[in-house]
Design brief:
The chain has 3 helices and 7 strands; from the N terminus they run E-H-H-E-E-E-E-H-E-E. The chain is of the alpha/beta class. The chain folds into 2 domains: 13-77; 92-151, Roll (Chitinase A, domain 3), CATH 3.10.50.
Length: 152
Amino acid sequence: MSRAFVKETDAVDELPEKLVSEHRNLVTPEGLAMIEAEVARLQVELGEAQRAEERDAIQRVSRDLRYWNARLVTAEVQPAPGDLSEVSFGATVTFERNDGRVQIFRLVGEDEANPTKGTISYTSPLAQALMGKSVGDVVKAGGGEAEITKIE
């Protein structure tokens, strides 16, 4: 149908797709559960929007559901690290910055990362600097340096 015959209120702008990372979708078991819960929540929300015939909501939720389904399909669950002599995915690392601050972060998947809650993405610059390092090693952290004091 020509756009000339569509009422202005019927026209819905297409939402851009959410970008999917080019990195491997490594996740912890908790990260997989979070993705599964998000897919389930969005499926319910989509059904509600369809019943209510809310076109904008249908479009928004459909886009989000496509993103999370893609993340679910590509999720690679990683076991808890067995060897804690080096920093690896899933490890919790304690380090002391050269300004005296002590920080603790767990290295997790991109979608489950939340620095304010003590988790950082394994793809982040800090996580990349920590990977493969051992207690006592010093890494570049932001504008300074940090010494790894504990790996759990």
